[in-house]
Design the sequence.
């Protein structure tokens, strides 16, 4: 079982908060990895929020090859940052040689490009980089997008924190949205790409549980969009469906829930919007999930999302203060971070709810 | 030396030999009355009385039951005589030296005809070599089949991809902006297409009653296909027609009445099924012997009493494009594009090509693809067709599904599979496995007959549907024989069978952790057969 957490705050937070959020939940996972995505960045990245930032773990050769590709495409580096490594003896971690976080100016050819054209360039570049590094096992491209920073590593979350100096708070590295998962994830091979959270074009998703319709989801998604690749984890499907429904189809985000956990026919029949819902249920039946899952998401506009499977078989709780909202697997994690909150406002979402945390931190509960 | 007439049909040439014990027989006559084929008759035999040998021979006369030896009146092994005999004095025994079909061809210069199903069984059953092996354990919980809410519904009708749904956003809510192809959510097991004519009106009525009961009392949206033989006008004008899929085949039997009744219909039918071919005798048209064309069959079909042969192909349709443009469009237009129009073909090496063409048709008017496999049944066929033509359902269904996956169009034309399901006793297991391999649902005709009392099997028992002398009153129009079938009991048995299958399907959905149909979820399947594993792309286990 995984443990997952998503934090959204009005102030910039250091990723140590994610480690602390997950620390008391460690009995619920297997200490096999730690990964986080930071969005709405502060600190040293705050001056470059509009520019794409590359998050990569690679060998020396992989780093060189990636930078060559970006250079040849016309990207110009404006910022490079690497974590300070504390390679103490006895740490349970399998590190890569280089961890690179770089922000780039767009190529001159894209000086007057539209937002869509820039996004197209970024996804194509990210796919190219991944392809080139994968060929010779040279490294991993986690995200290449404005205002996003991703780190994934195999090992004990505590030791990973120590290795990257993440336990020490500082002003360099901080963000208003942090999503994190403990456990390298996957019932299959240990693969860095299989670690949640997953990121694609402004959408972040992390989940706990088992996607029993993984094969159906994957078979359908493979031909839907060029960015739907990998499938190292069965939970990547949740990201791709969110992206497809909200970005490609341009449907409001509440239709995500109608897609992954469509209501039973007899319930739909009682509704005014039955014609639409039945069509969605039929047309996107291969994107249905039918396992035990809790899914957290971050939308491109910075809103947080939480939905559960139709049987509500995985735990989740949402806690909040004026400044911060946290959704995570177990309440014990929130108790550590927000001990003084009003616990009567804690939300335990049910199987038909979509929880949305707006940018002013109001928490909306939508009934399916 | 006595002359032996070696070329004459002899008892030893027949497929079944009747064993009779005169010591147990009470001469009640029930067996001869029950035998619809006239295969046994009472005769008086001359018997020599025991004597010392010095006396003049003396003879007795004894009334016994004797087997007829003729092409027209030979025993089919149906066992009705055994069923009615109060003392167990008579039974049919399979003859290992059977030469009947050779003798028949040599004597009649005609092909052998029969009904029922293929008797060769050389292929073995693929579905029996597949198990459901992906059981939810600690990764995710199995569901309680008895208490959990499951949904056993599947779309029937053309499904458009999400980007073609003509949805637009009105203040955050999606709304449809144009008419879309009709689509219905039905139970995943469809009662297969058997016509009034092929089966007795009592059998057909039992199925229709069961369909109505399953829908209106049990809440199970089961649909029944009429077969190509029309539909009673009263049913057509009733509200129950919404549960019926009207079939049209190359003979167009019954459609004159259907078209004339359209203005008075109060409900749309559940669908229209265009039958191109059937799995038991692919490439061969329907065949209804004159002996089964009773007066009411003539009236419903609008034909005289004669052998009714549906041509193997539809008149004027020589390509898929023509089929789509002419037949599908006209059938869609018949009910103003409100009723799904599907197609049924025999499984064939060419099935994927057909399916691909239908998937790509620009009009989006093909609402279902029914694939009928080799082991299906039929009312009448040439034995050579039954035994030597056709294609098993499993790999062809899988091929079609994967062809759709390859194009990212799975589910757009729902796939329904049939042909020999339940042959070894587990219909629900067969259905579940085919659904995991990509079927939206399945259909069956043969199982319904067996539920109603058909005693035929795949090893030559009875298989005489073509004679019009069905001893179970199912595949006959003979008024005396049809009386053997109790409509209410048959309907009740069909309802019960559907309920049992519903329970059993849930018993398979629960362990894999799914509350909705696992269509295309082949990761749930395993096989010990390496060839099947490779061919179907499912996990090999040992």
Sequence:
């Amino acid at each position: 079982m995984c443990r997952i957490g998503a934090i959204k705050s009005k102030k910039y937070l250091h990723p140590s908060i994610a480690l602390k959020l997950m620390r008391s939940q460690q009995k619920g996972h297997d200490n096999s990895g730690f990964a986080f995505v930071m969005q709405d960045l502060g600190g040293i990245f705050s001056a470059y929020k509009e520019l794409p930032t590359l998050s990569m773990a690679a060998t020396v050769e992989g780093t060189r090859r990636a930078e060559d590709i970006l250079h040849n495409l016309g990207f110009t580096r404006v910022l490079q940052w690497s974590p300070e490594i504390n390679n103490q003896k006895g740490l349970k971690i399998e590190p890569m040689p280089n961890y690179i976080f770089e922000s780039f100016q767009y190529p001159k050819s894209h000086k007057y490009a539209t937002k869509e054209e820039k996004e197209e360039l970024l996804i194509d570049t990210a796919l190219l980089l991944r392809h080139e590094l994968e060929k010779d096992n040279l490294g991993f491209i986690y995200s290449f997008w404005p205002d996003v920073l991703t780190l994934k590593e195999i090992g004990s979350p505590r030791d990973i924190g120590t290795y990257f100096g993440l336990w020490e708070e500082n002003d360099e590295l901080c963000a208003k949205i942090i999503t994190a998962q403990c456990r390298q994830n996957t019932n299959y091979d240990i693969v860095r790409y299989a670690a949640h959270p997953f990121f694609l074009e402004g959408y972040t998703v992390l989940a706990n549980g088992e996607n029993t319709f993984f094969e159906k989801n994957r078979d359908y998604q493979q031909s839907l969009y060029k960015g739907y690749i990998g499938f190292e984890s069965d939970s990547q499907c949740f990201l791709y469906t969110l992206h497809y429904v909200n970005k490609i189809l341009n449907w409001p985000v509440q239709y995500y829930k109608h897609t992954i956990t469509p209501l039973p026919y007899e319930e739909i029949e009682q509704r005014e919007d039955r014609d639409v819902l039945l069509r969605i249920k039929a047309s996107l039946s291969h994107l249905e999930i039918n396992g035990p899952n809790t899914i957290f998401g971050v939308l491109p506009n910075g809103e947080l999302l939480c939905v559960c499977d139709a049987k509500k078989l995985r735990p989740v709780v949402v806690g909040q203060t004026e400044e911060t909202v946290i959704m995570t697997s177990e309440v014990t994690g929130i108790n550590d971070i927000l001990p003084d909150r009003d616990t009567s406002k804690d939300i335990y979402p049910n199987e038909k709810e979509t929880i949305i945390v707006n940018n002013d931190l109001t928490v909306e509960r939508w009934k399916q | 030396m006595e002359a032996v007439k070696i070329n004459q049909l002899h008892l030893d040439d027949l497929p079944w030999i009747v064993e009779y014990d005169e010591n147990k027989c009470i001469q009640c006559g029930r067996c001869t009355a029950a035998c619809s084929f006239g295969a046994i008759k009472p005769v008086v035999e001359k018997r020599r009385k025991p004597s010392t040998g010095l006396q003049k021979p003396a003879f007795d006369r004894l009334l016994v039951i004797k087997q007829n030896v003729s092409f027209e009146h030979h025993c089919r092994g149906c066992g009705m005589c055994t069923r009615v005999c109060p003392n167990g004095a008579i039974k049919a025994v399979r003859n290992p030296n059977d030469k009947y079909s050779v003798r028949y061809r040599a004597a009649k210069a005609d092909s052998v005809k029969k009904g029922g199903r293929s008797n060769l069984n050389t292929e073995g059953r693929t579905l029996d070599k597949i198990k459901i092996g992906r059981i939810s354990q600690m990764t995710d919980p199995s569901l309680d089949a008895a208490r959990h809410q499951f949904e056993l519904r599947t779309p029937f009708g053309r499904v458009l991809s999400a980007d073609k749904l003509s949805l637009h956003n009105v203040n955050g809510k999606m709304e449809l902006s144009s008419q879309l192809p009709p689509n219905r959510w039905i139970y995943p097991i469809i009662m297969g297409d058997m016509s009034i004519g092929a089966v007795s009106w009592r059998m057909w009525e039992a199925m229709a009653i069961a369909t109505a009961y399953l829908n209106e009392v049990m809440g199970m949206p089961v649909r029944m296909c009429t077969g190509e033989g029309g539909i009673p006008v009263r049913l057509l004008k009733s509200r129950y027609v919404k549960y019926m899929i009207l079939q049209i085949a190359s003979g167009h039997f019954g459609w004159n009445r259907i078209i004339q009744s359209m203005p008075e219909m109060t409900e749309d039918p559940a669908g229209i099924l265009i039958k191109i071919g059937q799995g038991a005798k692919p490439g061969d048209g329907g065949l209804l012997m004159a002996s089964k064309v009773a007066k009411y069959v003539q009236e419903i079909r609008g034909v005289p009493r004669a052998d009714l042969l549906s041509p193997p192909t539809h008149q004027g349709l020589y390509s898929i494009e023509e089929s789509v443009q002419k037949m599908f469009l006209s059938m869609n237009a018949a009910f103003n594009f409100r009723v799904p129009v599907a197609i049924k073909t025999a499984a064939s090496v060419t099935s994927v090509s057909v399916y691909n063409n239908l998937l790509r048709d620009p009009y989006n008017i093909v609402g279902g693809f029914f694939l009928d496999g080799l082991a299906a049944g039929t009312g009448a066929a040439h034995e050579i067709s039954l035994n030597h033509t056709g294609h098993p359902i499993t790999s062809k269904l899988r091929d079609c599904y994967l062809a759709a996956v390859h194009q990212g169009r799975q589910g757009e034309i729902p796939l329904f599979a049939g042909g020999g399901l339940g042959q070894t006793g587990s219909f629900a297991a067969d259905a579940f496995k085919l659904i995991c391999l990509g079927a939206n649902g399945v259909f069956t005709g043969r199982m319904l007959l067996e539920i109603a009392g058909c005693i035929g099997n795949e090893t030559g028992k009875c298989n005489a549907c073509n004679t019009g002398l069905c001893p179970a009153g199912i595949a006959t129009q003979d008024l005396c024989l049809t009386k053997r079938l109790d409509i209410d009991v048959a309907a009740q048995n069909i309802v019960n069978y559907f309920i049992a299958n519903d329970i059993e399907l849930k018993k398979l959905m629960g362990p894999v952790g799914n509350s909705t149909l696992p269509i295309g979820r082949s990761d749930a399947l395993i096989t010990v057969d390496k060839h099947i594993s490779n061919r179907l792309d499912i996990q090999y286990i040992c």
Remarks:
- Chain A has ten helices and 16 strands.
- The longest strand of chain A covers residues 3-13.
